[in-house]
Structures are given as C-alpha cells and as structure tokens.
Amino acid sequence: MGDPRDLRITIIGSGMGGLAAAVAFAKKGFKDIDVFENAPGLGFVGAGIQIAPNLIRVLDRLGCWSESSIEKNGTNVSDATVLDGATNTVLARSDMTGIKALYGYPHYTGHRASLADTLYEAAQKEPNVHFHFGETLQEVTSFGPDQVTFMVKHFQGEPRVLRTDILIGADGIKSAVRNSLLGASELKGEVEETGQACYRILLSRKEMEPYPELLELLDGNSVKRWIGEKRHIIAYPIDNHNIYNIATCQPDVNFAGPTDATWTTKGNKKAMISVYADFCPVIQRMLQLVPDGDVVEWRLRSHTPLTKWTHGAVALLGDACHPTLPHLSQGAAMAIEDAATLAEVIARLPADGTNRGDVARALEVYHLLRKDRTATLVEMAALSGRTLHLGEGKAKIERDRQFREAGEKGENPDKWASPDVQKMIYEYDCIKDAQERFDGLYASPSLKL
Ligand SMILES: Cc1cc2nc3c(=O)[nH]c(=O)nc-3n(C[C@H](O)[C@H](O)[C@H](O)COP(=O)(O)OP(=O)(O)OC[C@H]3O[C@@H](n4cnc5c(N)ncnc54)[C@H](O)[C@@H]3O)c2cc1C
C-alpha cells in the first residue's frame, strides 16, 4: 500500500480536457502522468472561445490564468447582446460589466490556441508529465481489477499493449475509450446527429478596417448573437481586438464530405452566403469578406446520454462523456472542470488508496459529482438552440415578448445571456464542491460500482 500520488495516470487525448487533466494531476503531486495524443502535435482549429468565470476559476487554481496569454490578449466581455438577424435590432442585452464583482472572475473571449498553449506550457513545465504525440488508443483491453491495460499504436509503428493504474478517456466525441467502456459494461451508446452545422470564420483588423460599422464591432467588448429561423451567428473580438471571431449555426444541409476526424471540412463560401442571404447588411458584409478557401464547416454531433462514465480504474471526461451543442459556450469549461474534479478526487483517496477497489470507488464519486451539472447544461444548450431557431408563429411571438421584457437583468430566452442561468453556471466552484462532498459520497453504502 502506498501514496495515491504514486499511481500512474494515463490520459488519452490532449484537447482542452486532457491538457487540463495533465496539469491538474501534476499540481496535486502525482509523479507519473502520460498523455497519448492521436495527432502529431497540438493542433487547434483557428477559432475563438468564450471563457466563462467558472472556467477561469479552474484555470486560476491551476496557475494558468494571471499573466497568461489568454488573459493578456483576450477580451473582457462587457455585454451579451441578442439581435434580430434580418433587421439588426437589439432583442435583449445583458450587461456583463459586473460579472467579476459577482463571481470573482470576469467573462472573457479569446483564441482557442492561446488557451490550449497556456495549458500545454503549464503541463510541459511539470517534470512528471510526458506527452506522446502520434499515438492512437485503439482499445482498452482490461479495466482491472489489477492494472488497466490498453493498446496504442504510433502512426509509424505496430500496436503495443501498455499498463497503467488509472486511465482517463479525454478523447473527445469519437472516444475510443468510451467505446471500450461501453463494450465492457455491455451498454449501448450511439453518436447522434444534431442536424446542425457551423461555419467558423476569423476576420482580421485589416479586412474589417475599411468599414466603420465593422470596426465598431471589432473595437467593442460585446458578444453578439444574431438570430433567425433555424440559424444564428455569434461573434466577438479576440486577440487584442485584432481578430473578429464568427461562428454560425445552421441546418446541416450544405456539409460536403469527406471530413477529417473532427467532422470538419472546407466549406463553400457561396453556400454560406446563401444560407444567411436574408440577414442584415452588416452580416452580409462580414461573410463577403471571408477569403475564398477560408470557410471551415463543422458538423455538430452529440451522443446519447451515458449512464456510466467509469469502469474499474477507467474514467471518461469532457466531450467523451457529455458532448454538448455550443449554445451555452460551456463544452470546454465542463471538460476542464471534469479534469480538475478528477485530480481532486483521486488525490483525496485514503493514504493507502492504491487499492483497486478504492480507485474505482473514487472515480464513481467523480461521476456523481459531475453528472447532474453536466446533464443540466447539455440539456439547456439544446433547449436554447431550439428557442433561438424558432420560425414564425406563436412560439416565436412569445419568445420575442420575453426578449423585450428581459431588458438588462431579467430572464432571457437565450440561456447563455440570461443572468439567472449565468449565476447558476458562473458561481459554481467544482473543486470546492469535490472537497465538500467527497467524504460523504465515498463512504456512502449506496455507491454503485
Ligand atoms: C462551434 C463550437 C463552439 C464552441 N464554443 C465554446 C465556447 O465558447 N466555450 C466552451 O467552453 N466550449 C465551447 N465549445 C465546446 C468545446 O470546444 C468542446 O466541448 C471541448 O473542446 C471538448 O474538449 P475535450 O478535451 O473533451 O475534447 P477534444 O477537444 O475533442 O479533444 C479530444 C482529443 O483527443 C484526441 N483523440 C481522439 N481520439 C483519440 C485516440 N483514439 N487516441 C488518442 N487521442 C485521441 C483528439 O485528437 C483531441 O486532441 C464549442 C464547440 C463548438 C463545436
């Protein structure tokens, strides 16, 4: 029997969740952490990301916020404004200048690469974290009760079987770890079409400069969402107001294969412009500015809800277990919260916690700590999407009435911009929650393994 920090930790995937897990375990003093990543290096799609206060709280705990490039170059958001896509009139505006005072951290937008690089650099500074790029997990071959065994293959090599004490599947929506876990538990789970796709666009200052109405957007601190039937566009400045990040969401009809492993493909500019043909001139102008060949389209997919995230000494996190539509801007936040919770929980194992049964128990506590919150946010993101995309009719009239009544502080049908929902999401402290509830859940006789 030894110290839980002697347990060997293997993380599959170096997306936002996997990187955060590597840093979180290292900060907790774990001595042997390996990250296996399928890609030959860190490769993040050039796009922005909203970094909500609950996410910044975790980054700060991991030493990845103050003075980070994401803090230095990101935008401190002043408001979330919902507009009618066709007329550009404001439907509702939530003031966010008080977010830091309310929740201890601001709401930022930034470049995905800055966030990933910050986490990667933090992980690289930890001597106990080892990255293995170009290595694909093929399957988990044993979940215990002794060590976990798994098969990985380097893109130039033969498959080989490795051992570890705890394996974390941070391998995203197409998770191979999840497939193995479901197989071993005799459970079924399917990837689901959401019927939605999105274009992701970055416009530079140079491209926007000739147009005062666009410069105003780039120089502001507002996150704006233009909505229309079955479609919307969300946009905000990143990179010290040098880049305007635009993400659209529309029915998945133009998507043309073949796609890569992330369901991303080159989009067609003409098709993109025609999807938003009835949107206002500001939107038309921005879409026209996109250089030909720079249109990237993502297919948005989901997964049937999982009843099980852990099996033996194997656990899933992030999109591998609760993929979400992006309408609440909480997918990466949830993955990073999962990562911090996992490290907290495993570090809290009793001093003799290298016992296999104890590890499985602690991982199930992690699942209990995370499942209700993530299920709520996933459902809320889907609901928000349905509300935002309403066509003409009674439901839309009622929604627009609610927008009008929302004003600066009231409940807003766009959950992402609604102060009551922001409160529920932003004030949550996943690490404090784990610290407060771990002992009770761990000791509970009803904990199901
Ligand atoms: C349009 C859009 C906008 C979004 N905006 C926001 C936002 O503003 N804020 C926010 O918080 N979230 C946002 N999200 C959600 C967020 O991007 C994801 O939820 C988050 O990145 C998931 O992180 P992850 O680590 O779980 O998975 P991923 O980021 O998908 O990482 C998985 C990693 O595992 C690797 N991998 C896969 N299979 C294997 C294998 N077999 N072996 C080894 N490695 C493997 C992959 O290469 C990848 O690096 C958005 C999503 C979309 C689609």
Question: In a nutshell, what does this entry contain?
Answer:
The protein has 15 helices and 20 strands.
Q: Keyphrases for this structure?
A:
449 residues; alpha+beta; FAD/NAD(P)-binding domain; 8-stranded mixed sheet; 20 strands; 26% strand; binds flavin-adenine dinucleotide; monooxygenase activity; oxidoreductase; FAD/NAD-bd_sf; FAD; FAD-dep_Monooxygenase_BioMet
Can you tell me about this structure?
InterPro entries: FAD-bd, FAD-dep_Monooxygenase_BioMet, FAD/NAD-bd_sf. It holds the Pfam family FAD_binding_3. The protein is built from 15 helices and 20 strands. With about 450 residues, it is an alpha+beta fold. The strands form 4 sheets. It has an 8-stranded mixed beta sheet. A 6-stranded mixed beta sheet has the order 8-2-1-12-20-19, with helices on both faces. The longest helix has about 35 residues, at about 355-390. The chain is globular, with a radius of gyration of 22 Å. The protein binds flavin-adenine dinucleotide. Flavin-adenine dinucleotide binds near residues 15, 37, 176 and 298. Flavin-adenine dinucleotide (FAD) binds next to helix 1, strand 2, strand 3, strand 9 and strand 18.
